Amino acid sequence: MQKSVYNYYTASQRRGQPEMRARSLLFTVYGDSIRPHGGEIGMRSLIRLMAPLELSPRAVRAAVSRIARQGWLRTRRVGRRAFYSLTPQGAWRVEQGVRRVYQVDPAPWDGRWRLLTYAIPEGRRRARDRLRRELTWLGLGPLSRSTWVTPHNLTDLLSEIAGAHGLDGNIAIFEAAHLGPGQDRALVERCWDLEAIGAQYRAFTAATGRRAAALQRRLRTRAISD
């Protein structure tokens, strides 16, 4: 792949990692724990819920405020208390995340590539960076700094995300066949750093394996003591 492009985006992700981690965890918690149980939660309860995930109250408040401004959450006030629930757009985002994470048998590839290209002025750099992070989260790969590709039909979702950031007029989405040079695998290797992705998967499985083993030990200890 074009290393300069990949390194640019991975560096951008590292700089924004705390923000992205908080937002990602909030979407996960809403999808797994809040949405199935009424879909609404107060700030104090949300802070307590996020504490075991090592998010400070300040980080939770900042992430909620940011997500609400972007149109993913709506606020309902009762006196001095605020309650938060997903907007239809936010619910769509969570549903897409659930499908992506838990889909066991993905549909066979239709052989077509979807491309998103954008022209966003420097004065809107923050919106541009947010869009890039969204594209990375969805698994798109950068063919160039302003052209991203995916083998999946994410047209509706990409349009939704662009609209959430006020970038409807700055993007274009295409569907195309890769005619060369080289095979589709060459395109994949150009747009995604497969070695780095594999290393991340190995690190993830190792970390979750250690946590699962620690949890099993705690459960066995508790069972023996009861």
Automatic annotation (TrEMBL):
A Pfam family this chain is assigned to? PaaX
| Domain Transcriptional repressor PaaX-like N-terminal span(s) in chain numbering | 21-89
The family database entries (InterPro entries) matched by this protein are listed as: PaaX-like_central (IPR048846), PaaX-like_N (IPR012906), PaaX_trns_reg (IPR011965), WH-like_DNA-bd_sf (IPR036388), WH_DNA-bd_sf (IPR036390)
Might you name a Gene Ontology BP term for this protein? DNA-templated transcription
Every copy of the Transcriptional repressor PaaX-like central Cas2-like domain together lies at: 107-188
Record-linked PANTHER family: PHENYLACETIC ACID REGULATOR-RELATED TRANSCRIPTIONAL REPRESSOR (PTHR30319), TRANSCRIPTIONAL REPRESSOR PAAX (PTHR30319:SF1)
**UniProt-recorded name of the protein:** Phenylacetic acid degradation operon negative regulatory protein PaaX
What species is given as this protein's source? Candidatus Segetimicrobium genomatis
